[in-house]
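Thread: quick sanity check before group meeting

JM: Hey all, I'm pulling together slides for Thursday and realized we never actually wrote out the predicted structure for the chain we discussed last week. Dropping the sequence here so it's in one place. If anyone has concerns about the input, flag it before I start.
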Amino acid sequence: MKLFAPPSANDQSAFLRISSHDLPRVLLSRRDLRVLGIEVTNVTLLAWEAAGKFPARIRLGPGTGTVAWLASEIEEWFAIHVAARG
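JM (edit): ok, ran it. Output follows.
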């Protein structure tokens, strides 16, 4: 299974190519969130997480600032917002 497609000439970021059964074990970085269109500040993400409006981040090591989010939870977050549009 191919998880990433090569970047296009206009975009240096890699887009995820994943199926729904793979989502529980895929982690998304802050950069991945931006690629998916979630282009808000870290302060906004932290506020959304604290208010329960966005999935909680996972810390990837003690004493590091490296964090990620479960792709399955981000996909569910998108689905909820799409459904709320009506």
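AS: nice. The two ends are 34 Å apart (CA to CA). The chain has three helices and three strands.
JM: adding both to the slides.
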